[in-house]
Amino acid sequence: MLLRAYQTGKNIIRSIAASLLIGVIVGAIDAVFGRGLLAISDFRTEHFTYLIPFLPIAGLLIVWMYHHFSEISTKGMTLVLEMGQGKRKEIPMLLAPLVLVGTWITHLFGGSAGREGVAVQIGAVVSSQIEQRFHLCGDKKKMLITGMAAGFGGLFQTPLAAAFFAIEVITAGKMEYGALLNSMVAAYTASYTSHFLGLAKFAVPIQSALNMSQPCVLGPVIIFGVIFGLTGRFFAVLLKYAKEKMSRFFRNPYVRIGLVSIPLAIILTLLYQGRYSGLGTNLIAAAFEGQTIFAYDCLLKILLTILTLSIGFQGGEVTPLFSIGASLGVIVGKVFGLPPEVCAALGYAAVFGSATNTLIAPVLIGLEVFGTDNAVVLVLVCTVAYLVNGNRSIYTAQQLEW
Fold this sequence. Notes:
Elements: H1 2-46, H2 48-51, H3 55-69, H4 77-84, H5 95-108, H6 116-134, H7 140-156, H8 159-168, E1 171-172, H9 180-196, H10 215-249, H11 253-270, H12 281-288, H13 297-310, H14 318-336, H15 340-356, H16 360-370, H17 375-389, E2 399-400
Parallel strand pairs: 1-2
Helix pairs in contact: 1-5, 1-6, 1-7, 1-9, 3-5, 3-11, 5-6, 6-7, 7-8, 7-9, 8-9, 8-16, 10-13, 10-14, 10-15, 10-17, 12-14, 13-14, 14-15, 15-16, 15-17, 16-17
Protein name: Chloride channel protein
Keywords: Membrane, Transmembrane, Transmembrane helix
Membrane topology: Multi-pass membrane protein
């Protein structure tokens, strides 16, 4: 019995040590990636007119990189989820540099895309390689989830949300609690590391609070959940549909990205000179700083992000989802006469949760970014949005437990 207890304690210490190591490495990479992406975004905004015409060429370069170095890496998050489900034994190491460089190129030349997919994939690659080479944990799935949490936590510096996102996203309806401790250790370590290396955290403490005891508040809050849930569902369904149609209609990936990115570049230029390019952080800032938000901002950001990703450009979906939710929240808040910044915060979290088919992670990210004054409202809105979503997800490889 003593020997078994000793062995168990030894395994726990080894897995925690592995989580710390993963957190430091992934946090450092996240800092480089995140700060580089912000610098690229600023440069693109300043020189948008000169860069956007080269979007088709940038797309061709991205396709060439993937097909020349690691064609299977074009599957991106699907590879990560399949490994977590036991359908795949390993993830190609080249996935990390390819998705990092591909995302930088996408953002430099004006594509509408996110960044979280990059961080999660990098974290998964790093953790898988460490476990494969050093066998510190002995559980590939646990280390994969740990790396995913580190990637998300290091980039957004929301470690609680990152840990729960990693344990609930692989299989909808099933929480991988066995990996929670390692995920939290890695996520917090990555968050502290990236912050120490100069990557700033986005946070907006919301001072206004909705009083749920008032009848004029409860009804609109439930309606918000339905609207945000349908928006996330619409994004997930349309993204899957667009990817299938694009790959079927343009079987050659060079033709697909080279041809379709020409009208994409024109549209992005005509619509307010790149307002819908990049991450969408400009829309997020506008939502929380009282700047102009148009009623059609969320729809245009949805359509242009889906078009960008469906033809082969790289990046994630989550930050655009944040911007879609925040801008939509401002509009519905004004319609119901409720504080726009509170409604923007609710949309920020709930649309993300609906589109990723997760529940705990969006609640936690809302609390970590906006504070706890609207915690009850946040839980209610995210729950309704999750139920309305109906198990749709931007991650098509996500499994369903039921």
